[in-house]
Amino acid sequence: MYPFPDELLRDELRNYPRATEVVWTQEEPMNQGAWDALDEFIRACMNERQSLSYAGRIASAAPAGGYYQKHAERQARLVDAALNLDWTDPHPIKILEAREAPLKMIGR
C-alpha cells in the first residue's frame, strides 16, 4: 500500500477514542500478507493507549491448506480469533501482541 493512507487511518482511529487494541487480520499466511510491510505504519497512527495485535495464519509456503472443509474451519477460527470470540479451538492461527514479543499459538 503505497502511499500509506496514514491520515485516513489516524482519522478513523480517532472515531474510537476508548479503543485500546487494534488488530491486524489477514487471510494469507503471516509470511505472505502485508503485515511485515505495514505494522510500523499502523503503529505510527495509533495513540499511546492502543496496542497492535496480529491475528492470522501461521507462516506457510502455500496460501491455503488444500482441503475446502479445513479451509472453511480455519477461516471461521481466524475471524473468531480476530474478534476475540472463541480462543478454545485448536487452529493454525497466531497472535502477535507486539513486534518484539514472541509469537503465541492460539489453541495448540
Task: Give an overview of the whole structure.
- With 108 residues, this protein is of the alpha+beta class.
- It has one domain (6-106).
- Helix content is 32%, strand content 21%.
- It has three helices and four strands; from the N terminus they run H-E-H-E-H-E-E.
- The protein has helices spanning 6-14, 35-45, 68-82; strands at residues 21-29, 51-57, 93-96, 104-106.
- A four-stranded mixed beta sheet has the order 1-2-3-4.
- Strand 1, helix 2 (35-45) and strand 2 form a beta-alpha-beta unit.
- The longest helix has 15 residues, at 68-82.
- The protein is globular and about 40 Å long.
- The protein starts with 5 loop residues before the first helix and ends with a strand.
Short description:
This protein is α+β, with helices and mostly antiparallel strands and 108 residues long.
